[in-house]
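Hey, weird one. I pasted the (2Fe-2S)-binding protein sequence into the form twice and got a warning about non-standard characters only the second time. First submission, copied straight from the form history:
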Amino acid sequence: MPRMTVNDRPVEFDLDPEMPLLYALREAANLTGTKSCGGGDCVGACMVLVDGTALRSCRITIAEAEGRFITTIEGLSRDRSHPVQQAMVAEQAIQCGYCTPGIVIAAAALLDRNSAPSKAEIEAAITNMCRCGVYPRLVEAIQRAGRVMRRGESISAAPAPGISAADAAASVPALRASPSDPDGGS
């Protein structure tokens, strides 16, 4: 039975050792933030940190992960306070959200190695596919997260887990009606 540390907790999987780590995390550990392309197309939505390196969890078996330290999107920051998570929200670099966990993991690994990456370094490191096309905002979000990490600043962009919809809506500025649109555009 393969043993590893997942999100700082020891885990032992009583599963086929050749099972991809992705499915062990999603189905046995109920860590569903790690997404799957479902057909081996591997768009990077399944990224996790393995001993600090961003890897596609569909490409590593639980036997290969034995004895290693695995960090999923859930373990990166339980309160969404990681600079990459905050910058992604602040820079509006999230659309449908499917690819976001993998991108956040890949960006966190990049910034751990280099907190001041150039656009070219970001493009080389973030090989994840985003069908919504957030790439220009993504580069700025990663550079902003790097600035936050270097300077010790914070971004208060994402609401804390458990925030009510009413409280979240109250924090967004109301749309104002223009003279030609008395309903405010809705």
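That's the output from the first submission. The warning seems to come from a hidden character in my clipboard, not from the data itself. The radius of gyration is 18 Å.
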